[in-house]
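Usage example:
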Amino acid sequence: MSPDAVVAVHELSKSFGDFVAVDAVSFDVQRGEVVGYLGPNGSGKTTTMRMLLGLLRPTSGSATVLGLDVVRDAERIRPQVGYMSQRFALYEDLTVAENLRFYGGVYGLDNARLAERMEAMLELIELQDQRNERAGELAGGWRQRLALAIALIHEPELMFLDEPTSGVDPEARRAFWDVIYTLAEQGRTIVVSTHYMDEAEHCGRLAILDQGRLLAMDTPTALKRDVVHGDAWEIVPPPDASPGPVLDSLVRLPGVLRVETLGDSLHAIVEPGAYQAESLADALAGYPGVRVEPAEISLDDVFSILVSGGHRR
Amino acid sequence: MIRRLTSIMRKEAIHIVRDRRTLALSFVMPIVMLLLLGYAANTDVRNISLVVVDQDRSPASRALLDAFRAADYFRVDFMVDSEARIEELIGQGAAKAGLIVPPGYGEQLVAGRSAQVGFVLDGSDPIVAQNALASAKLIGQAKATEIAIERLAARGQGSQFVSPIDVSTQVWYNPDLVSAYYMVPALIGIILLFQSLILTSTAIVRERERGTIEQLIVTPIRAGELVVGKIAPYVIIAFVNIIEVLIVGALLFRVPMNGSVLLLLALAALFMITTLGIGLLISTIARTQQEAMITAIFYLLPNIFLAGFFFPIAAMPPILQLISYFFPLRYFLIIVRGIVLKGVGIEALWPEVIGLTIFGLVVVTAASRRFRKSLD
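Running the assembly step on the lines above writes:
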């Protein structure tokens, strides 16, 4: 554990009966980082966060948050961290301002500080004009921002956001990430879980989870470089042809590691140097008019290769 | 700490105020229950429907009927000719009791012999039957005494009649034996129990269902602050309820208030600590609001029957008397009836106060133990 780690997790596990939700996970988070926690539903993202917040007791292993043990010192950790749970924890019959005031009061803010923080939060999430509306009447994107403001009311230096953008439209998701950047610029450490690959790209470092295990953790660039050993190509079938048969042919070609459909086109990873654009197009000569263009390795590639246990040969 | 506590209290108060139905329930339910139970839970039996067969039709038999009519207990609804008809009417439920004056009743009396009359009774409702039976016997005895005096008078010894035993009765606290005086104060106990159980049993589980419990747990709030903050607004409502019941009880049912209202409020607060504690305990155990409600109702029902609200504890079998000690309502009913009717002070209520205190300590400790700040 490095001295600057705000979160240090060592061999942390959690079982519910026979089900292992988190399996010996170890990682550190440094001060000021935006760390993404990427994995499908049931991969252990929420359970890990809940253990770090002292909501669940680890079955084995240990973790510290801000240098404090998550089991023994949970009550000392709580005032210093912010948490936004997957279900936006709003009281729907309370107004926007009442929700903020309630949580501010529960964190023990005095009146002057509370008033100041409420204004700052309303400005941050741009809800000044709706402050007297009931939380239950807000649209999804606004509810999500209010939930974030609630998690931020006491100015925590470390934030855990559990799938903050689930069930929110793409525009609201983008706006939400703008807020996350603002918070990161203020020097806050943010751990955010998601199952959206495009969001994962925004993170400084990414932890990739599947079935309770931490498969890899690094910057998105390093993950693409180190996990995926191969070249990426985009294959655009002729306008009148469907991608299905082309995909079938592609996967049978020697040296093709992985193929994925992306809208009307196909995304393929091949062994390094196995093909050039021309040679790959030639190999697909049965489909006249097929186009082959160089592509970027995506986090989807990283994820699927990690989950399948490395490259299939 | 005060800030966290007031935040919870304010939030709960907003929930209550915004939820019109809960609000209405909180203030209207006690009055509705008071009206329903005040009138329905009435064991004063009057105007029992009586069917009469007068086969004698003599001045003496008419005098007997007049005696029955004069008391409020009976109302002569039917005059019929045969005993079979009595059976029919009682079987249909049209009449509750039947009086049979056999032929020759008057003659026997005139002859100075003992005359017999028959009295039949529908015993399917024991409360009505007991009252009717006692009243019929009393009326019969009074009439018999009257006739005895008349006979002595006829022999010129009337003024010398002295009843060998004169039981001088004095009924204390409720001289007219009005059952409302007994029931209405007890209703305070029932209403407090209902309100506090139903409202608090859902208090924590509601946060669990909405998902807000997770957010609450990660704040620095302490379990005790959450528990106290959540029940405080309900305690205020409950005090308003007590005052409501006392005022409406006095205006509508003329229930006197013989003791100290302050003492009653203080001991009601003690009682509520136990009932709110039970409600919260249910709330920490139940997983859904529905489950909490059902559990609360299951707890409420035996309270009504075993704590001495309807049925006197002294009349229960020993095992049930023992069980009744596990219902805090038992202690509070003694307290509230004692203060309101007898006007007693705390010196007469020590055993109940101690019982409630022990009970309260146990359930509140259990509730806060159960509510750990964790999701496991």
